[in-house]
Amino acid sequence: MNICGCLVHVTVGAVDAARASIEAMPGTEVHAASDNGRLVVVVEDTETSIASDQIMAMHQIPGVMSVTLNYHHFEDLSQPDACATP
Description:
The chain is an alpha+beta fold.
């Protein structure tokens, strides 16, 4: 499991189009938006894409000025949980 929390800063006139483009990407979800063009986006790995590729692709969306990774969590689900009791 790979989960990334990002802050995406978009020019004010392009927020709706950029948000639609981000939400159309696999593994992405916009959780919040401000009036001044900031979007809180969660990106997860999917079977067809990895989160880092989605984050890099967000940089290419017209109107996106910056994408900042603010949170990252990785957990190898194929490994047994060391804290679990048998």
